[in-house]
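Just wondering, can you check both lines?
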Amino acid sequence: MKNSVWLLIVSGFITGMGNGSVFTIATQLAVGRGPFPEAGLWGSDAYSPFTFEGFGNWVMIIFGAVFVWILGYALKLHGIREGKIKE
Protein backbone atom coordinates (compact mmCIF):
# COMPACT_ATOMS: atom_id res chain seq x y z
CA MET A 1 0.00 0.00 0.00
CA LYS A 2 2.93 2.32 0.68
CA ASN A 3 3.96 2.19 -2.99
CA SER A 4 0.55 3.20 -4.30
CA VAL A 5 -0.32 6.25 -2.18
CA TRP A 6 -0.24 8.77 -5.03
CA LEU A 7 -2.11 6.44 -7.35
CA LEU A 8 -4.71 5.99 -4.62
CA ILE A 9 -5.11 9.74 -4.02
CA VAL A 10 -5.21 10.76 -7.69
CA SER A 11 -7.53 8.01 -8.88
CA GLY A 12 -9.75 8.36 -5.81
CA PHE A 13 -10.21 12.10 -6.21
CA ILE A 14 -10.77 11.90 -9.96
CA THR A 15 -13.41 9.19 -9.61
CA GLY A 16 -15.04 10.65 -6.50
CA MET A 17 -15.17 14.19 -7.86
CA GLY A 18 -16.67 12.86 -11.10
CA ASN A 19 -19.41 11.15 -9.11
CA GLY A 20 -19.89 14.32 -7.05
CA SER A 21 -20.35 16.41 -10.19
CA VAL A 22 -23.10 14.08 -11.39
CA PHE A 23 -24.82 14.35 -7.99
CA THR A 24 -24.47 18.16 -8.12
CA ILE A 25 -25.98 18.39 -11.60
CA ALA A 26 -28.89 16.16 -10.59
CA THR A 27 -29.50 18.32 -7.51
CA GLN A 28 -29.35 21.55 -9.49
CA LEU A 29 -31.75 20.16 -12.09
CA ALA A 30 -34.17 19.18 -9.32
CA VAL A 31 -34.16 22.50 -7.43
CA GLY A 32 -33.11 25.01 -10.09
CA ARG A 33 -30.02 27.18 -10.13
CA GLY A 34 -31.55 30.47 -9.05
CA PRO A 35 -30.80 34.00 -10.27
CA PHE A 36 -27.54 34.39 -12.18
CA PRO A 37 -25.97 37.04 -9.86
CA GLU A 38 -26.43 34.74 -6.83
CA ALA A 39 -25.09 31.60 -8.53
CA GLY A 40 -21.70 32.00 -6.84
CA LEU A 41 -19.61 32.23 -9.98
CA TRP A 42 -17.32 35.09 -8.93
CA GLY A 43 -14.35 35.20 -6.57
CA SER A 44 -14.58 33.39 -3.27
CA ASP A 45 -18.32 32.75 -3.72
CA ALA A 46 -17.31 29.70 -5.74
CA TYR A 47 -16.30 28.02 -2.46
CA SER A 48 -19.20 29.16 -0.29
CA PRO A 49 -21.46 26.14 0.36
CA PHE A 50 -24.47 28.49 0.34
CA THR A 51 -24.21 29.26 -3.40
CA PHE A 52 -24.91 26.74 -6.11
CA GLU A 53 -21.36 26.80 -7.48
CA GLY A 54 -19.90 26.48 -3.99
CA PHE A 55 -22.29 23.67 -3.15
CA GLY A 56 -21.13 21.81 -6.24
CA ASN A 57 -17.47 22.33 -5.42
CA TRP A 58 -17.87 21.14 -1.83
CA VAL A 59 -19.87 18.09 -2.90
CA MET A 60 -17.11 17.14 -5.34
CA ILE A 61 -14.38 17.63 -2.71
CA ILE A 62 -16.28 15.56 -0.14
CA PHE A 63 -17.09 12.78 -2.64
CA GLY A 64 -13.41 12.72 -3.67
CA ALA A 65 -12.14 12.47 -0.09
CA VAL A 66 -14.62 9.71 0.77
CA PHE A 67 -13.72 7.76 -2.35
CA VAL A 68 -10.01 8.00 -1.46
CA TRP A 69 -10.87 6.57 1.98
CA ILE A 70 -12.91 3.74 0.40
CA LEU A 71 -10.11 2.85 -2.01
CA GLY A 72 -7.52 2.95 0.78
CA TYR A 73 -9.59 0.65 2.95
CA ALA A 74 -10.18 -1.76 0.07
CA LEU A 75 -6.48 -1.77 -0.76
CA LYS A 76 -5.61 -2.46 2.89
CA LEU A 77 -8.07 -5.38 3.04
CA HIS A 78 -6.65 -6.73 -0.22
CA GLY A 79 -3.13 -6.59 1.23
CA ILE A 80 -4.26 -8.42 4.36
CA ARG A 81 -6.01 -11.11 2.30
CA GLU A 82 -2.96 -11.60 0.11
CA GLY A 83 -0.73 -11.84 3.18
CA LYS A 84 1.39 -8.81 2.33
CA ILE A 85 0.15 -6.74 5.30
CA LYS A 86 -0.22 -8.01 8.83
CA GLU A 87 -3.40 -7.12 10.72
Summary: The radius of gyration is 17 Å. The longest helix spans residues 52-82. The chain has a mean pLDDT of 85. Helices lie at 5-31, 52-82.
